[in-house]
Amino acid sequence: MAATAPQRAIKSLSDPLVTELLGLANESARRVESKLCVVSGRKLLHELGENYSFKQVVSDRPLPPMCPLRYESHHIVSDKILRRVANMRSYQHNMLGTVQMPQPLEKPPDTARLLLILDGIIDAGQLGTILRSAFALKWHSVWFLPRTNTDPFDYKAIRSSQGALWNMPFTYGKLDRLERFIDEAELFPAVLDTRGALIGQESDIFAKANARGNGTRDRQRRNGIALLIRGPHAGLAVPPKSFNRLCLDDAGGRMDLAEADLGMVASVALHEIKNTYFQHITTSPFMASPELSKEVSKYAHHFDSRGRARNKRVLERQSRGKGNGGGGGAQTDRLARYERLGKIKA
């Protein structure tokens, strides 16, 4: 049963709680400082509520007596406030909540065999679509190249991804660390491009890679793949030479890949690669949880005012320059803990 908490009706947009919620929904810096973000939608709250508790739950009416959500406080607000915080035109009879953000790992789990790499995805809706597809298709982990992608905990990204990052491990790291992990895990490095080996039932992407001169090294890497998706603002001017170029079939000219939405193209590629070449690989047996405190990546949820990932020390230096750097220092980062699904208790 949900924890009992006093309720108070809020109708003013200037209320301190509303100001806090608007800051968490729209400002990366607020999310970094509090390690909280806003999730909206009754369905998403109930799905996350199976494994996580909320700091605040906000709705326009009292919650039912047997509401399964766990929370510290519940607040009743007007429909206008719900719409403003959720950034929706119509949001009647719905709810939103604040929840702790899952934290990235220093590197993907050793069991990861389907690794998605993102570089330069600046549209929050497209980023969320790609993450949602990766989770639905049971890819194991996500690697964000730093400073190039939009904040994955932006309200648009959370809404379109339906909270995918709470259910799959993710990492921030530079290219050298990424290539090291790919070598250690013996994954097949690939990049989605407009030319290269054709992805599909009649094409052997590994054979084409070997014909290019990679020899037996890539033939031994069929136990998994590391797929790089590059957006229009990719930090890498050109794909790394170690990555094999792959491309999608345009369905006999019926699909204009040059004009297609990046989220759609990436989702198709994730589906085709998984179901054509790696059907034997099962879903990752792990689920993220933000409870334990350990050392994490230095790019762990450190974003500047424009939503770009930044080194923690750079942000601290910028904060001190504005007169906000004193007093207590940065809070201790938290690491995503992984538990087998059967052991997680709601």
TrEMBL record:
Superkingdom per UniProt: Eukaryota
Biased composition (Basic and acidic residues): 303-319, 334-346
Entry GO MF terms: RNA binding
Region feature Disordered, mapped onto this chain: 303-346
Alphabetized InterPro entries for the sequence: Alpha/beta_knot_MTases (IPR029028), rRNA_Methyltransferase (IPR051259), tRNA_m1G_MTases_N (IPR029026)
SUPFAM superfamilies: alpha/beta knot
Protein name per Swiss-Prot or TrEMBL: Uncharacterized protein
Naturally occurring in which organism (per UniProt): Perkinsus chesapeaki (Clam parasite)
